[in-house]
Design brief:
About 40% of the residues lie in helices and about 25% in strands. The strands form 3 sheets. A 9-stranded mixed sheet has the order 6-4-1-10-11-12-13-14-15, with helices on both faces. Strands 3-2-8-9 form a 4-stranded mixed sheet. Strand 11, helix 5 and strand 12 form a beta-alpha-beta unit. Helix 1 packs across helix 8, helix 5 packs across helix 7 and helix 10 crosses helix 11. The protein starts with a strand and ends in a 5-residue tail after the last helix. The model has no long low-confidence stretch (mean pLDDT about 90).
């Protein structure tokens, strides 16, 4: 199991008046912790009731909280609204910074969402990615929140710079539509590869996902399941993908810029897709454990 550093925001999702720990980087860290990895989340939360709930949530999933992650600021919140299909939208109240984020020797470094495009945190994230040691795989999920974007061109520039510093970039079709309106999947993924990514993946919700490298193009359908809500689905896909990468031959191949094995890539996409499918059947961002994931991997067919 690979050691993993996740850097980014942790907050609480408020759904129907109830508070649940969330935030894309936190959700990915929790997913990886439940899958058996040694995970540290470097973030910024308050010492308030919401912050204590986040710490309990991390502890329950065997995720370590990075040093200096508890600050004097209030813990950020996101009020979640669900439509008739379970699709989620968010109203954010943010008060955080990421001064505590420092480079480590973890085998994988991951970031995403608000921390990677919004100040004051994104500049520090970029510095840490630029200072990443040669052995470390860097992973990025834009997971955009357009309501928080005030200067579109500046945000796109920050996102593309981080893509160029990352081995793995995973984005949703909604992210792609906002970033590159009018572009088809091939053009978007090709653009990310041209920027410097070694593996570019786009997810399409119920329509599955597609991955590209310079040599490979692999598509994977999604599992048809009963959806409770989609909160944390993309993050569960991300944690499932990093789990598969960090637990197999893809990690070294990506870091060393070697050709990827097609079977290994297909297996990683199946793991990621199943992780997301198991999550949407539950309320909130509740990714699977290793036992849940492995028991289903041995029995489901795509």
């Amino acid at each position: 199991m690979a050691s993993i550093q996740v850097a980014g925001e942790a907050l609480v999702d408020i759904v129907n008046g109830l508070a649940y720990p969330g935030g894309s980087p936190l959700n990915v860290a929790v997913g990886l912790g439940r899958l058996g990895h040694e995970v540290t989340l470097q973030t910024g939360i308050g010492g308030d009731e919401h912050g204590r709930a986040i710490i309990e949530h991390l502890n329950a999933s065997d995720v370590l909280l990075g040093p200096d992650s508890v600050t004097e600021s209030a813990t950020s919140t996101a009020t979640v609204s669900l439509d008739s299909t379970g699709q989620a939208t968010y109203d954010f109240q943010l008060d955080w910074n990421l001064e505590s984020v420092v480079p480590t020797d973890a085998q994988i470094l991951h970031t995403g969402s608000i921390a990677a495009f919004a100040e004051p945190g994104c500049s520090r994230i970029h510095e840490v990615f630029a200072a990443s040691p040669a052995h470390q795989l860097r992973s990025y999920d834009p997971n955009l929140r357009p309501a928080l974007v005030d200067k579109r061109r500046a945000v796109i520039s920050r996102i593309e710079k981080l893509c160029a510093l990352s081995h793995v970039v995973k984005l949703s079709d909604e992210d792609a539509l906002w970033l590159y309106p009018g572009w088809d999947t091939a053009r978007v993924l090709g653009h990310l590869l041209a920027r410097g990514a070694k593996l570019a993946v786009m997810t399409f919700g119920v329509r599955g996902c597609e991955a590209r490298t310079d040599q490979l193009e692999v598509s994977m359908p999604s599992l048809q399941v009963s959806v409770s809500d989609t909160v944390g689905a993309g993050d569960a896909f991300m944690s499932g993908l990093l789990h598969a990468i960090g637990n197999g031959p893809l990690l070294q191949a990506l870091v060393s810029n070697e050709n990827l094995d097609e079977d290994a890539l297909e297996s990683a996409l199946r793991t990621a897709s199943l992780s997301a499918a198991l999550t949407v059947q539950k309320i909130g961002a509740n990714p699977p454990t290793l036992v849940e994931l492995e028991s289903c991997l041995s029995s489901v067919e795509f």
